[in-house]
Design goal:
Blueprint (H helix, E strand, L loop, with lengths): L2 H7 L4 H17 L16 H33 L4 H27 L5 H10 L3 E2 L2 E2 L3 H25 L6
Helix pairs in contact: 1-2, 2-3, 3-5, 3-6, 4-5, 4-6
């Protein structure tokens, strides 16, 4: 039995479903290469509650991913791992993060059906440190992910409503 089956099996129990969905969202942010939108479709729970769980779970996952990415970046920088091509790609990613920063992160993470883990690690690993300051701070990284999670959930449920999917 996989996590999606467990989630869908708990639909009738709002408390159990909320806990499983929250864990599912965190895992999707960290390691699961799957979108989390399926968890928003529970006819036994209010949509606003599901969006809140999604947003907070994405924030928790983002905090953990930021910490992992920041630590991994430090190790990689110390060891200067990679070929010239790898170093050029890393430099390009750092320029991207400097240029688009929070706005780029918000747009990418608000995009429905986007795989979270790739984007989170790309932004946290490519978060350059200039004059002792990072392009993105942990606090804003997490807040942007919470906001983008709420926007993403709202977009998904709005589109579902417009095409005729009714949850109640």
């Amino acid at each position: 039995m996989d996590l999606i089956e467990i989630l869908l099996g708990a639909m009738g129990d709002p408390i159990t479903y909320s806990i499983i969905f929250f864990i599912y969202v965190i895992l999707a942010a960290l390691i699961l290469p799957i979108p989390v939108e399926i968890g928003l479709f529970n006819p036994f729970m209010h949509s606003a509650w599901l969006i809140l769980i999604l947003a907070i779970g994405k924030g928790v996952g983002a905090a953990i991913a930021f910490e992992i990415g920041t630590r991994a970046r430090g190790v990689l920088k110390k060891r200067s791992i990679g070929t010239q091509l790898t170093k050029k790609i890393v430099a390009w990613c750092e320029r991207f993060v400097r240029k688009y920063g929070y706005y780029g992160l918000f747009i990418i993470m608000s995009t429905p059906l986007m795989i979270d883990s790739v984007s989170l690690y790309l932004f946290s690993l490519s978060n350059p440190k200039d004059e002792g300051k990072r392009a993105m701070t942990r606090r804003w990284f997490v807040l942007i992910n919470i906001g983008s999670g709420a926007v993403r959930g709202t977009i998904i449920l709005s589109v579902a409503y417009l095409i005729g999917v009714r949850l109640v």
